[in-house]
Design goal:
Elements: H1 4-16, H2 20-33, H3 38-50, H4 54-67, H5 72-84, H6 88-101, H7 106-118, H8 122-135, H9 140-152, H10 156-169, H11 174-187, H12 190-203, H13 208-220, H14 224-235
Helix pairs in contact: 1-2, 2-3, 3-4, 4-5, 5-6, 5-7, 6-7, 7-8, 7-9, 8-9, 9-10, 9-11, 10-11, 11-12, 11-13, 12-13, 13-14
């Protein structure tokens, strides 16, 4: 008879190979044999989240928290699942609980800031983005998110600095490059925006936003022929 440890090992191997459906099945088998094993529940929840089964992910993370109430990363992960399910107040409580348990947890600070920004509380979001970056100065995602908030409140110059830092830290991340390009467009730096959207096209040639951004920059510079060509590529 297969043991729990064997199922966990096989589940982890499948997970690391991105075979998430197989991993979920193996972790679920392990759960049935060891219903009080928090590691099994956690991996089942993580895998369920990747597969888009947010209901199962929420159930799994809640079970881990009942078994290990001080598992700060699980409170954070539950917060993200709840946010995705539209349960924003509960999600905020989870992120705050994660920070209460681990005040140096930069990812929870970033996630809380993003949630607060979604809820229109830009002032508090600003505080938590700054906290995340103080805790983790090389946190590219937080720099990009912080830039988006700064852009929203009209601090475009500061936003560009934050976007630029995100791209410096992770130059091959399409989302950070896209955000930087949009900031440059708003700032009226159309030559720089074109260069950044060309960079994004190299990274993600199928991303319509890259072609659309390049088209917009070219329109502002009255490069109509190129703009039309790239506009067509955006909708192909």
């Amino acid at each position: 008879m297969v043991t729990v440890d064997e199922l966990k090992q096989r589940g982890m191997a499948a997970f690391q190979a991105s075979q998430f459906e197989s991993a979920a099945s193996l972790f679920d088998q392990a759960r049935k044999l060891a219903p009080k094993d928090p590691d099994v529940w956690n991996m089942l929840a993580v895998t369920s989240s990747i597969l888009g089964d947010v209901e199962a992910a929420e159930k799994g993370f809640r079970k881990v928290i009942r078994l290990q109430p001080k598992a700060h990363t699980v409170h954070n992960n539950l917060g993200t699942v709840l946010k995705d399910r539209g349960k924003l107040k509960e999600a905020e409580r989870c992120y705050r609980k994660a920070l209460d348990l681990m005040p140096s947890y930069a990812e929870a600070a970033n996630n809380l800031a993003t949630l607060l920004r979604m809820n229109g509380d830009g002032e508090q979001a600003l505080v938590f983005y700054q906290q995340a970056l103080t805790l983790k100065p090389d946190y590219a995602e937080a720099y990009s998110n912080f830039g988006a908030l700064l852009q929203e409140v009209g601090r475009v110059g500061d936003a560009l600095q934050s976007y630029r830092r995100a791209v410096e830290l992770q130059p091959t991340h399409p989302e950070w490059v896209f955000n930087y390009g949009c900031g440059l467009l708003e700032a009226g730096s159309f030559d720089d925006a074109q260069a950044v959207f060309h960079q994004l096209i190299q990274l993600a040639p199928q991303d319509a936003r890259a072609w659309d951004g390049l088209c917009n920059a070219q329109l502002h510079q009255k490069q109509f022929e190129s703009a039309i060509t790239n506009g067509h590529k955006a909708i192909e």
